[in-house]
Amino acid sequence: MVERYSRKEMSDKWTQQAKYQAWLDVEKSATKSWGELGLVPKDDVEKILKNAKFDVARIDEIEKVTKHDVIAFLTSISESLGDESRWVHYGMTSSDAIDTGVALQMKSSMELIIKDMKMVIATLEKRAKLDKMTLMVGRSHGIHGEPITFGLVVAIWYEEMKRHLKNLEESLDVISVGQISGAMGNFAHSPIELEELVCKNLGLKPAPVSNQVIQRDRYARMISAIGLMASTVEKIAVAIRHYQRTEVYEVEEFFAKGQKGSSAMPHKRNPILSENITGLARTVRAFVTPAMENVALWHERDISHSSVERFMLPDVFITTDFMLHRLNGLLDKMVVMPKNMMKNLNLTGGLVFSQRVMLELPLLGLSREDGYKIVQRNAMKVWEDLQNGQSALNENGESLYLQHLLQDKELGEKLSEEKIRSLFDYSYYTKNIDKIFARVFI
Q: Is 133:150 a contact under the CB 8 Å cutoff?
């Protein structure tokens, strides 16, 4: 069953209200920690924790004058307090609140993305096992190669997404850091113990060293991990788009009753979900470069990164969340067509068995080159037959390639008819699938 999805769960994490709430959480934690260190009186701590609040509209109004969002935020808070407001933001700089606050947002967002990933991975495991032995043709350069199974294709997607999950989990650890180190990161106006208490209260780790900001290689690591995962998402979507092509028609997106594919052509059933996912993956991946460019700030800080992150972080997380849910729905409901897969597997008249035949000949003393010539010259005859419109199988179900090989006198001197026929066995190509799956699905 596909989990129902609402964009609101992720988008709510990136509203103005959520941003300022994260800042307020940091400010309250700092006040509480100052109280534990003996600077702020207990009564003032309690008043701030109980009464400190902000109003987004009021912040916007104040910022029109101050041209500084953190000052506008702090002014709004002070209006909800009395004399105790003097302790809010004590010894801190703007980025202490901003970067520690956004760490809270990124942490909760990454936890949701990781949950999404586990959902997709579970669906991929189910689909791979369902089609573990569903025969299809493997393709290289878009040309038929040898028999594989659709389960093997999906198992590769599964294994790849598991690697991305590990990367994302490691990235979550990398970005789950905060700072309360002051204007230049030298702790001149607050003790290191304050930072340690604040981060512990917020479920973060203190950055071992910071200047005026958390270093943006952490953000770049996270965005790169998401972008790399998006590349695999696109890989899956592109494969499904190919499988749904009319000339292939091996897999199809679920087409609901009443759904329409074209305003002009009523027969159309288009791969719109996988096409949409392809575009979403490109959008997510586009943020990798600006994330990396944000690493190089002037000296202890500038704010060239700020404008980028105001777009990048909400867009990356919201788009990725939506993309993963859309992918999961596509995978869960996609229609697999084993008969069409077998039809395509036979499309080249048995040429998929060419290597199987060739590998028998060195066992009989032929050089690889001589064996290759025998096998290839008969294969070329099949291509010519197909170009001339000849059927891939005769009325007895024998493939063109088998027919040509049985007529080859040089090959007949090496291999009996019975042996040649035995080489055209699809089970030869699936004999190790169980072992492969045992390595993948541990």
A: no
Distant-in-sequence, close-in-space partners of 7: CB < 8 Å, separation ≥ 6: 318, 321, 322
Domains assigned to the chain? 9-340 (1.20.200.10), 351-423 (1.10.40.30)
| Residue-wise pLDDT tens digits, 102-149 | 999 999 999 999 999 999 999 999 999 999 999 999 999 999 999 999
Q: What is the DSSP string of 363-393?
A: GGT--HHHHHHHHHHHHHHHHHHHHTT--SB
State both tokens at 439: 């390595």
Report field, pTM of the whole predicted structure over 0.85: yes
**Catalytically annotated residue among 140, 141, 263, 427:** 141
- Contact present, 383 and 415 (Cβ < 8 Å): no
Q: Which two tokens stand for residue 389?
A: 């419109």
| SS3 of residue 97 by DSSP | helix
The per-residue DSSP string of 263-311 comes to: SS-TT----HHHHHHHHHHHHHHTTHHHHHHTT--STT--SHHHHHHHH
- Alpha-helical runs (H) found in 37-149: 42-51, 56-66, 69-78, 94-130
The mean per-residue pLDDT over the stretch 292-321 comes to: 91
Residue 404 falls in the annotated catalytic set: no
Mark whether 141 is an active-site residue.
yes
Beta carbons of 204 and 132 less than 8 angstroms apart: no
Tell me how far CA of residue 204 lies from CA of 80, 105, 246, 370, in angstroms. 27, 11, 52, 67
| Choice among 68, 189, 262, 422 that is catalytic | 262
